[in-house]
């Protein structure tokens, strides 16, 4: 899962990030509403499907938003830890976020986006990212774990477009994981998205949740490297976008650990969805206390000084620290070098 705005560069300036880090504050926060989901994606990091016992109440969600705003957050990213459009108070949450002066981003599988909901999102200028892994109905349905998923996603996209997405004030993206089943079509999917004005978020899969049960999804690092290099070439030649291919995101980078955190559906605070280490729970302590006292949060806020192995020597370290989720899920150490990175740290 990614933060909108990190395409081709950082979502916030280095100065803003440094300031947030210095005050133990936030610039954004990722928020799960529920693990309830209408799909059973075979790669899902959260193994979503049914609600967890003791999920946050609406009042507790409001409190989390209030605390994030008090810590300087400008944006709340509503995650697809489950499917947000199944949450009955979704638009009340969005309105509450915006009433606090924050922007709202929404990650959704898109299947439940009716014309009315598309218009409601457009009126609120919510940035929307649809989880779409294939333009092939059979492949999309296989990865989603449900027949008919492709057709329903297509309807959701069509409704967003009819409402006015995308335009200068209404960002529309697709989130796509790289796996064996869709590998051969990702170049065409990228070109299709670019021509539609849709931002393609193509990312490497983290080995957690249901992905650990499906070895057939995995793609060797050398093939992912070739894909990213091909996408970079096409992006430069056809669309004028220049970027260095490196994991875990094509045409993008992640610096969220320096200024963000994730609050799960039961109130646990984590550095990010990939680093599934609980730093505390907002029912037990304030978000400010958790950010200030949590070892994983503090270590990852200073990741560029604490990172280990090849990543600590990499010439790209000024703007990249690999994927902490990959490092944690593969090695058990969120400070370890990214084991799935192909970059040669000696490159110049």
| Percentage of β-strand residues | 5-15%
Largest sheet properties? 9 strands, mixed
**Morphology:** globular
- Kindly state the number of beta strands: 9
Class based on secondary structure composition and strand pairing: alpha/beta
User: Rg, please?
Assistant: 19 Å
- How is the largest sheet built, in terms of strand order? 6-5-4-3-2-1-7-8-9
Please characterize this protein's 3D structure.
The longest helix is centred in the middle third of the chain and has 19 residues, at 221-239. It contains 13 helices and 9 strands. The protein has helices at residues 14-22, 58-70, 90-99, 115-123, 137-144, 149-163, 186-196, 221-239, 287-293, 295-301, 303-306, 310-313, 324-331, and strands spanning 28-31, 75-78, 103-108, 127-131, 172-178, 199-204, 262-263, 268-270, 280-281. The chain is globular. With 348 residues, it is of the alpha/beta class. Residues 1-9 have low confidence and may be disordered. The protein has a 9-stranded mixed β-sheet. 49% of the residues are buried.
């Amino acid at each position: 899962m990614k933060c909108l705005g990190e395409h081709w560069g950082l979502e916030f300036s280095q100065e803003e990030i440094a300031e947030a880090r210095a005050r133990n504050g936030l610039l954004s926060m990722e928020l799960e509403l529920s693990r309830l989901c209408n799909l059973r994606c075979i790669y899902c990091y959260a193994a979503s499907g049914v609600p967890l016992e003791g999920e946050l109440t609406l009042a507790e969600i409001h409190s989390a938003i209030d605390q994030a705003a008090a810590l300087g957050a400008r944006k709340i990213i509503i995650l697809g830890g489950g499917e947000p459009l199944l949450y009955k108070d979704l638009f009340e949450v969005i309105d509450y976020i915006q009433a606090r002066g924050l922007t709202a981003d929404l990650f959704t599988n898109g299947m439940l986006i009716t014309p009315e909901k598309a218009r409601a999102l457009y009126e609120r200028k919510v940035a929307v990212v649809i989880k779409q892994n294939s333009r092939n109905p059979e492949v999309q349905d296989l990865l989603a774990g449900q027949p008919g998923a492709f057709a329903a996603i297509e309807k959701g996209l069509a409704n967003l477009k009819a409402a006015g997405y995308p335009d200068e004030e209404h960002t529309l993206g697709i989130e796509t994981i790289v796996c064996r089943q869709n590998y051969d079509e990702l170049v065409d999917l990228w070109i299709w998205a670019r021509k539609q004005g849709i931002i393609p978020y193509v990312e490497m899969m983290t080995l957690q949740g249901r992905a650990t049960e499906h070895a057939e999804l995995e793609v060797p690092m050398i093939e992912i490297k070739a894909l990213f290099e091909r996408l970079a070439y096409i992006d430069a030649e056809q669309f004028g976008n220049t970027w260095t291919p490196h994991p875990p995101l094509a045409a993008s980078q992640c610096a969220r650990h320096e200024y963000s955190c994730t609050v799960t559906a039961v109130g646990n605070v984590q550095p990010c969805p990939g680093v599934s280490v609980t730093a505390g729970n907002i029912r037990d302590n304030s978000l400010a206390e958790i950010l200030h006292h949590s070892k994983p949060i503090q270590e990852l806020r200073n990741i560029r000084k604490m990172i280990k192995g090849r990543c600590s020597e990499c010439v790209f370290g000024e703007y990249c620290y690999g994927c902490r989720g990959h490092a944690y899920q593969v090695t058990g150490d969120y400070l370890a070098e990214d084991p799935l990175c192909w970059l040669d740290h000696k490159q110049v």
